[in-house]
Amino acid sequence: MDIRHLASGLSISGQIHPDQMSEIKTSGFRTIICNRPDGEGSDQPLFADIQRAAQAMGIEAHYLAAESGKVTDEQGVAFGKLLESLPKPVLAYCRSGMRSTTMWALSQAGQQPLPKIVEAARKAGFDMKGVIRRIANEGRTPVAVAEARHAVVIVGGGAAGIATASSLLAREPGLDIAIIDPADVHYYQPGWTLVGGGVFEAQQTAHTMGATIPRGVHWIKAAVAAFEPENDAIILDGCRVVRYEQLIVCPGLKLDWHAIEGLPQTLGRNGVTSNYLYHLAPYTWEQVQQLRSGRAIFTQPPMPIKCAGAPQKAMYLCADHWRRQGVLGDIEIDFCTAGAVLFGVPDYVPALMEYVRAYGIDLNFGSTLTSVDGPAQTATFRCVKVDGSTHLVTHDFDLLHVVPPQVAPDFIRVSPLADGAGWIDVDSDSLRHKTWANIHALGDATNTSNAKTAAAARKQAPVVAHNVLAAMGKAKGSAHYDGYGSCPLTVERGKVVLAEFTYGGKLAPSFPSWLIDGTRPSRLAWLLKERILPPLYWKAMLKGREWLAKPELADL
Fold first, then answer.
1. Active site residue: 239, 307, 336, 383, which one?
2. Is 239 a known active-site residue?
3. What is the pTM of this model?
4. Class of domain 4-136 (CATH, top level)
5. How far apart are the first and last CA of the chain?
6. Catalytic residue among 34, 239, 250, 487
7. Boundaries of each Rhodanese domain copy (predicted)?
8. Range list for CATH 3.90.190.10 in the chain
9. 16 falls in which pLDDT band (50, 70, 90)?
């Protein structure tokens, strides 16, 4: 934990965790202030967890959250009032400490000379020059004053961003590329289903971001606040400005835990879990092992979500464990999905239904989780009847695996890059933005109709890399993305239904049917999922090696 003294009675840190509260108490802090909204990161504990741990130690906990790079003057005033009234010393935290420092700087405007504010922040390791320009410019950030300029800027250091940077360098070594991402760790998120099923350890899915970003690529460790495409500019957290020639946007999705009433207060307790969070996938496996009888409910929200098969993958692996332990007959399994079908591509449904029947799973279509009462262990769903009317149904549970609703990140939804629904508005074939010719996007936050999976990003990255270089005059022709996505559906430990398809649900198998028939459960497909895909991800996809992923080209 990196705690930095900022001002009298105030220190700043990056994200803290509940198990660090004893250390925080020993350090003498009497109050903590959270400046980070829930749901920003897949490895982020919710504020409710932090608050419980703080209260157990006799520490006050307050929530004053701001979107990354969107700290307002009003929040600065509110932060200053909190500092005046709360027991000191105070520890304020966000993802990196930048938002907390920004709030403090804004709270001090007019009370301290601006150079003194800048110097105090600098000693704590934070550059406030952009914030000071904003204060001096009456709230506006002058984009003409750029902190950095690069030929290609990539927003997002997840699977899509790293793979695209590597594909660019494989085609044009020495290209000036910068990746903007505030995270310290890069995760292999497809592995979290196997963590929740007791196959992988969580640590196997995590590498440091510094070790993952390709050599020669600049890493701007910051969060994006806003886009100004008419000026070829990005505004970062702290009001810093980065300019670009070509922009690639791939920030992933936001998990909207607060869309379900009561969920943040009970997640990780009372048998409520989710494989969509790094630190909760092990809790899933712990709860699965402990459950010997009762009801287990698995939920799926309205589309789109990342990896549409993940909710039922978790269910099948859990059911298989209970079957192997001889307790499956004592456990009632419910699959409550907002959708009208089990899986969006009909060819794979017959194989999945065989497992639904074998495990005795009760399918509840048109069921959307609306609230959770953790202590009472009840979950309430809004259910759609055949005539289109809705009603609420409440179920008891012993285990509840929740998949939260998912949306584009806040800074995308409010940006000029977004369509009316909040997704990045791109051409589904070229992945170029429909308005801004020097902007491309890929991954989960676009409005393309493909499945939001790592496999889709693997196919999209070379397409974007080629088309960006073509836009720069460094490549000929245009590359096309056909909507490929893949979902290895783990139906039991040792067998996978390997779903592969393109736009419109057209089957797109990578292997001949005599080797792997994707419409049937396969042990070879399990070997691919467990043994081959993880190293393929780390050592091929993220290194610009495009095995089975070279794009189709057409002359301009």
1. 307
2. no
3. 0.89
4. alpha beta
5. 53
6. 487
7. 78-144
8. 4-136
9. very high
